[in-house]
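Lecture notes, continued. The same structure-token format from the folding unit now serves as the input rather than the output. Read the line below as a description of shape only.
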């Protein structure tokens, strides 16, 4: 459920008409809804809280990569949400947004020594180690600082899942994590080091997962490994179950609910006496954001093909080009009349800059406003200035109020970041 609704024939973000934001901020622009973010977080929080014995003192750590805007992070931080981070930059954002270090998990397949050192200085809750080589480097960095960080070993369960091959992370050939048998040995090796404190296991098998079966299989593997490690007198007190739960991008699409997901995880973890961590990204943010765009023109071909040319492009929302992703497109002020098939494209000079082919849309004219739904996760964070298009701005709405939370750069600001080499 989201809070982007028609009121008086016009799409609003909560109490704010999107046409007002288009006039005052310009398009394209991402618009986020505080009420929707809050609802998604509280639904998951309550679903997890319904199983206190299974999950212990559970942590929900928002995957910052999905939407790293400081205001989005601050909205979630105020609700008690932690942060799952994959770079020094993301840790810095989480801290600036008010996430306490004790709720920050540091994940990622290629953390540099400098990033590990930064995480130790900050005192993050836990570092998820993804390879033997990384454990060696972390031990060296920690020894140099006299720190003893809590770590989890990220397991590659050889169970991949997700909405597209490019976002499946748990498969055998994927670069993430340590295969289960190696992970057991690595855990024991970490436990023997005075410089790190292994507290648990982690996994994350993919993104936009709509069926619980692969997640359940991965969680069962983690619980089996926990018992094996404990039988070797090794302490395991935390399980990080990763993120990955999918969202319905198309109206009517079926996805497992947060309540079903939590109940499944509780069944698997019950009796194990661990603290669980969850790392949702898309689930919290996707349907809390839209990309608002204006139609530049309609191009009708003699063969009947109609192109709706928008002022947003693949540099603003790359998911359709990169993952063949589906985002609903809706007019802000729907006109009466029959739907017709259109190709929805941006102005960038490659055919990849196509948001949808043969999409049925209600009547549209030049200057009309449209939104892409489900754009709050992996939207603005993946934007670029390709074709020297200014980085897309972001607006946060809360009831009747709104704020520009990332401004569109001016031409001067964009060009000032570069220099003409002094010999030219
Ligand atoms: N934890 C870890 C370690 C991750 O790598 C990810 C996402 C998450 C949590 C959050 O997953 P989520 O709950 O959002 O599914 N750019 C792609 C998605 C890439 C996801 C990468 N990892 C897209 O636009 O679909």
């Amino acid at each position: 459920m989201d809070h982007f609704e028609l009121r008086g024939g016009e799409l609003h973000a909560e109490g704010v008409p999107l046409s007002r934001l288009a006039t005052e901020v310009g398009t394209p622009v991402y618009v986020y809804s505080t009420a929707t973010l809050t609802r998604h977080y509280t639904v998951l929080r309550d679903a997890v809280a319904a199983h206190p014995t299974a999950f212990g003192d559970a942590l929900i750590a928002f995957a910052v990569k999905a939407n790293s805007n400081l205001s989005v992070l601050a909205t979630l931080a105020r609700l008690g949400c932690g942060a799952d981070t994959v770079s020094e930059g993301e840790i810095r954002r989480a801290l600036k947004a008010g996430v306490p270090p004790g709720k920050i998990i540091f994940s990622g397949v290629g953390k540099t020594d400098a990033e590990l050192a930064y995480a130790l200085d900050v005192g993050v809750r836990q570092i998820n180690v993804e390879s033997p080589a990384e454990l060696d480097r972390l031990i060296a960095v920690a020894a140099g600082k006299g720190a003893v960080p809590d770590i989890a070993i990220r397991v590659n369960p050889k169970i991949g899942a997700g909405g597209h091959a490019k976002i499946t992370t748990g498969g055998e050939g994927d670069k993430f994590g340590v295969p289960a048998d190696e992970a057991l040995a690595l855990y024991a090796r970490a436990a023997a080091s005075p410089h790190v404190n292994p507290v648990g296991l982690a996994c994350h098998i993919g993104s936009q997962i709509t069926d619980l079966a692969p997640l359940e299989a991965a969680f069962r593997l983690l619980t089996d490994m926990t018992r094996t490690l404990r039988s070797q007198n090794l302490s395991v007190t935390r399980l990080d179950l990763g993120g990955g739960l999918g969202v319905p991008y198309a109206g009517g699409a079926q996805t497992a609910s947060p309540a079903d997901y939590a109940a499944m995880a509780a069944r698997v973890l019950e009796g194990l006496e661990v603290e669980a961590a969850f790392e949702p990204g898309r689930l919290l943010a996707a349907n809390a954001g839209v990309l608002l765009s204006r139609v530049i023109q309609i191009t009708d071909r003699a063969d009947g093909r109609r192109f709706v040319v928008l002022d947003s492009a693949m540099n603003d929302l790359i998911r359709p080009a990169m993952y063949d992703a589906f985002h609903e497109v809706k007019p802000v002020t729907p006109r009466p009349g029959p739907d017709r098939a259109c190709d929805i494209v941006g102005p960038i000079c490659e055919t990849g800059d196509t948001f949808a082919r043969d999409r049925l849309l209600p009547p549209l004219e030049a200057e009309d406003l449209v939104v892409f739904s489900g754009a709050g996760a992996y939207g603005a964070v993946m934007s670029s200035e390709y074709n020297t298009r200014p980085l897309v701005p972001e607006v946060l709405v809360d009831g009747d109020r709104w704020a520009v939370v990332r401004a569109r750069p001016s031409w001067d600001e964009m060009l000032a970041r570069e220099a003409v080499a002094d010999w030219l």
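Point for the exam: The chain has a mean pLDDT of 97.
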